[in-house]
Design a protein that fits this description.
Distance between the termini of chain A: 55 Å
Oligomer: heterodimer
Strand content of chain A: 15-25%
CATH class of one domain in chain A: Alpha Beta
Number of helices of chain B: 13
CATH topology of one domain in chain A: Dipeptide-binding Protein, domain 3
Strand content of chain B: under 5%
CATH superfamily of one domain in chain A: Dipeptide-binding Protein, Domain 3
Number of strands of chain A: 23
CATH architecture of one domain in chain A: Roll
Number of strands of chain B: 0
Strand order of the largest sheet of chain A: 9-10-11-1-12
CATH class of chain B: Mainly Alpha
Radius of gyration of chain B: 23 Å
CATH superfamily of chain B: MetI-like
Structural class of chain B: mainly alpha
Largest sheet of chain A: 5 strands, mixed
Number of helices of chain A: 22
Radius of gyration of chain A: 25 Å
Largest sheet of chain B: none
Largest interface: A-B, 61 and 46 residues
Helix content of chain A: 25-40%
CATH topology of chain B: MetI-like fold
Shape of chain B: elongated
Distance between the termini of chain B: 43 Å
Order of helices and strands of chain B: HHHHHHHHHHHHH
Helix content of chain B: over 70%
Shape of chain A: globular
């Protein structure tokens, strides 16, 4: 017994000594530094016995051969849970290759160029009053098992969702779509519940990807055999995409290029990488060193902070980011407000939410947690050019309701005036433990509230446990991304139609897991949704009316804009989108990433982009 | 009135007599050196807590990423906190985890070990199975699972979670010691003279094993501090309190090794090493006191 414990202790001591020794000399060779991370990793693995696979992944020799040159390695922020289920209607981890490599969508939006790229479809048309949308599908698309992709698959998918709205994003489909009809094998008509000229942008009810993901069309001939789509693991998915699943564990998932992809025949294009690996390497430092050592081509969002990125770029000049200088990041369209549970007293009162808002120093959050990679946010919209006229239109309202203001004394006074004794508060701050970003922000915000005298209990959760807690409203505060970032759509997130009592799952995290209800706002938002999105003359006055209510109520507290600090390693792959060459969005976790890897045809049929082998 | 069992022990087995332990402990150089080192670490942290403004523990309270200098003797973190101020909270908290967990482990372990060993029969059969089951489970795996379930733990929660798994080895060892001791003549005498089982355990057996319990306590202390560091580095530690493990966790989260902010990660690592050294010396010392064969090597 003593020997065991003693040897465990010696092991840890040795490891610590090794770290100390290896790290004492700054600027050591990358190979030496590599050891510094492998060692604590090994110790942790031996002690806990739960991460042996990390060690295996780590121990894989750095492939400098042809195989490496044909592989795209992406670092992910946390383990893949669950690893064996690839069901977009049950599992939210679609960005682990499910929607970026396997399934494909009718249209992709390129937010950088403003293009609406037809992919599985060739075009769409609304009827006169925008109550029906007819989509023409390509006639040369096949599933990975050789079966043709047809209107039957589309109709089947929508009927499956209509039968069980509790499927992921199912409620949005039910709210928007009355029925889907097959016109012919390659034509479908979406009959809408209301006049909705925004429907082709609604990723949650239509297979078009603007931000992150879209409604996923599944193969009828596979899924119709399943009695309940909810229990279907789909561990060997049949998709239309250029990649098929080769292997999946919690630590890594491998996708292999299909030589029989329909796109190769249709466009004459083969995506560069033969293999795509999604790998969980552990903490930020491991990912940084893997980038330095060319083991990783790009990490996903929120893994690398500014300080680490600067050090990586110094050691490996082949590693680039969107911008050449601080803040290095691409502006993600989904800002990060702090959701406050409107169903938990005292935050059922707008005064209490405003008081909390005054206690948050957004500049400090941007400087400390994001190390200067972002800026404070006034609302739940990105600072894009298209949003500017809307922000300008409510300038006077923003003066009356300063959402970016930090004034501790005023916040405390407001709590007092609202009759809240802050010493009795103990806020449950739920944090996604796999998000480096959320973990860091939580520390700063909890410190700021703590300084003002409010106790905060940080509860880090991961995977389905975190998702359930948020969807059921089991939190007081929670930082979350607010997508898709469009004017009307982001206001729609506050619509009471998404409201569910505490304990019941809402349809989406930011679609009212904070339990806000205001019928007056609903009325205006519904009107905005019935207005064509580019009709600014009609939209702006509606936005002013809506914001007069929204700012007064402040259902969530704006904190910061979302920086996507996403480094790209140009050692093996070039052609990455950057601020100098902004042909696409640099986001590997979005479904649009397949247009980054393979490129896409522009309006005139000319092929744009695609990453290319550097060697 | 029954014969005092102690008198007989003293006559028959003088080397096992309890008197003299305190002298032996105080004369043991390893215990003295380890003890001084331990008190030095704790004392520095407590003295630091009086001298350094606790506000400097908060994020944004001081310029970020500064190497050690006059205003922050141990430098500052990427979050704008003073490392020295964090240490004044982390060291006492880590020691607190060790103390509570070791105390829990030793008390539960002794109770079960003595009862199981002394009473035998079905009590022993049942307890032995329970002890063996707990011995067989990989403790750190369970700790990770429990800590992952009870998210948002405090320092005390952590200590209790670790302590609840720290009793099986002491229980097993004490049980076998008790099995051997209870067949010795002095226990027979005590039994014949009418002492109850409980009295025999507390008045005859416990004093016999005090130095051994001490060594075991210190060992559990070391293991608990280590377990805390391990869990915290995995991100399962107390989020709103600082411990040595959480300091390493945060320094890793912000890539301090990569960015050569050695003062941030080296401070808790060296402190942990010194704590281990101090406690390990004490442990070795106790071993010598309880095992006369080792004493010549002092």
């Amino acid at each position: 017994m003593k020997t065991l414990k003693f040897s465990a202790m010696i092991l840890v001591l040795t490891a610590l000594v090794v770290i100390a020794g290896a790290c004492a000399a700054p600027g050591t060779l990358p190979q030496v530094v590599q050891q510094t991370v492998v060692v604590p990793q090994t110790v942790i693995a031996q002690e806990t016995v739960i991460v042996p696979q990390t060690v295996v992944a780590q121990a894989t020799p750095v492939p400098v051969d042809q195989a490496r040159a044909e592989t795209l390695n992406i670092a992910i922020g946390g383990p893949i849970v669950p690893a064996d289920a690839i069901n977009p209607y049950v599992n939210w981890n679609r960005d682990m290759g499910m929607h970026n490599f396997c399934y494909e969508y009718f249209f992709y939006q390129n937010l950088q160029t403003g293009e609406y790229i037809p992919w599985l479809a060739t075009g769409y048309e609304y009827n006169a009053d925008s109550t029906a949308l007819t989509v023409k599908l390509r006639d040369d698309v096949t599933w990975s098992d050789g079966q043709p992709f047809t209107a039957d698959d589309v109709v089947f998918t929508y009927e499956m969702i209509q039968k069980d709205p509790s499927l992921n994003w199912g409620q949005q489909v039910v709210d928007n779509v009355a029925s889907v009809e097959k016109v012919d094998d390659h034509t479908v008509t979406f009959n809408l519940k209301t006049s909705n000229p925004h429907f082709h942008l609604n990723r949650e009810a239509f297979p078009a990807v603007g931000i992150w993901g879209g409604t996923t069309i599944v193969p009828k001939h596979i899924w119709e055999k399943e009695a309940d789509p909810k229990t279907f693991t789909n561990s060997n998915p049949v998709c239309t995409g250029a990649y098929k699943l080769a292997n999946s564990t919690e630590q890594s998932r491998t996708w292999e290029r299909r030589d029989d992809w329909w796109g190769t025949k249709a466009f004459g294009v083969t995506p560069g990488p033969k293999t795509v690996n999604l790998r969980y390497l552990g903490p930020e430092t491991n990912v940084a060193l893997a980038l330095v050592n060319n083991e990783i081509d790009t990490p996903m969002i929120g893994i690398l902070g500014v300080g680490s990125f600067e050090e990586v770029a110094r050691r490996n000049p082949k590693v680039i980011a969107w911008q050449k200088d601080l803040p290095f990041s691409w502006l993600d369209p989904c800002p990060r407000p702090l959701m406050v549970n409107n169903a938990h007293p005292p935050f059922d009162k707008a005064e209490a939410r405003w008081a909390l808002s005054y206690l948050i120093d957004r500049n400090a959050v941007a400087d400390l947690a994001y190390e200067g990679a972002t800026t404070p946010a006034w609302g739940v919209w990105p600072d894009y050019g298209g949003v500017k006229p809307y922000k300008d239109a409510i300038a006077d309202l923003l003066q009356q309701y300063p959402t970016e203001a930090y004034d501790e004394a005023k916040g405390l006074q407001m709590f007092k005036d609202a009759g809240v004794d802050i010493s009795t508060l103990d806020l449950k701050y739920v944090v996604n433990a796999d998000s480096n970003e959320e973990v860091k922000v939580a520390q700063v915000i909890a410190d700021q509230l703590g300084r003002a005298g409010i106790k905060v209990t940080i509860t880090p959760l991961s995977g389905p446990a975190e998702q359930t807690a948020v969807l059921e409203g089991d939190y007081d505060i929670k930082l979350h991304s607010f997508c898709p970032g469009y004017i009307a759509e982001n206001l729609d997130l506050f619509n009471s139609k998404y409201y569910k009592p505490l304990g019941e799952k809402v349809a989406l995290f930011e679609a009212n897991s904070f339990r806000y209800q205001n019928p007056e706002l609903d009325k205006i938002v519904n009107e905005m949704l019935a207005t064509p999105p580019d009709d600014n003359a009609k939209m702006i006055p509606l936005f002013q009316q809506a914001m007069a209510i929204w700012l007064k109520d402040l259902p969530v507290i704006p904190v910061v804009q979302a920086p996507a600090l996403v480094p790209f390693n140009t050692t093996y792959w070039t052609g990455w989108p950057t601020a100098d060459n902004p042909w696409n969005m640099p986001v590997s976790w979005w479904a649009t990433f397949n247009t980054v890897i393979a490129g896409y045809p522009d309006k005139d049929g000319k092929w744009v982009g695609g990453i290319k082998p550097a060697q | 009135m029954a014969l005092a069992a102690k008198d007989i022990i003293t006559e028959e087995t003088p080397s096992a007599a309890p008197p003299g332990y305190s002298t032996l402990i105080l004369q043991n150089r390893k215990i003295v050196f380890g003890g001084i080192l331990f008190l030095l670490i704790l004392g520095t942290a407590l003295a630091g807590a009086l001298m350094i403004d606790p506000k400097l523990r908060r994020s944004g309270s001081i310029t970020r990423k500064l190497p050690p200098h006059a205003a922050a003797v141990l430098g500052t973190t990427s979050l704008g906190q003073s490392v020295a101020a964090q240490m004044t909270e982390a060291v006492p908290n880590s020691i607190q985890v060790g103390l509570i967990a070791a105390l829990l482990g030793t008390v539960i372990g002794s109770l079960l070990g003595f009862v199981s060993g002394y009473f035998g029969g079905w009590v022993d059969a049942v307890l032995r199975v329970v002890i063996d089951v707990f011995l067989a489970v990989p403790v750190l795996l369970f700790l990770v699972l429990i800590a992952a379930l009870v998210r948002g733990v405090t320092v005390q929660h952590m200590a209790i979670i670790i302590g609840l798994f720290a009793w099986s080895w002491p229980a097993r060892a004490i049980r076998s010691q008790t099995l051997s001791l209870k067949t010795r003549p002095f226990v027979d005498v005590a039994r014949i003279s009418g002492m109850s089982g409980f009295d025999i355990i507390t008045r005859e057996l416990v004093p016999q094993m005090l130095p051994w319990l001490g060594a075991n306590f210190v060992n559990a202390f070391i293991v608990a501090i280590l377990a805390e560091a391990g869990l915290s580095i995995l991100g399962l530690g107390p989020q709103r309190e600082m411990t040595l493990g959480m300091m390493i966790y945060w320094s890793l989260s912000y890539g301090s090794i990569l960015q050569n902010m050695w003062w941030w990660w080296l401070t808790p690592v060296v402190t942990l090493m010194l704590l281990f050294l101090a406690l390990y010396l004490i442990h070795l010392g106790f071993d010598e006191v309880s095992n006369p064969r080792l004493r010549t090597q002092v």
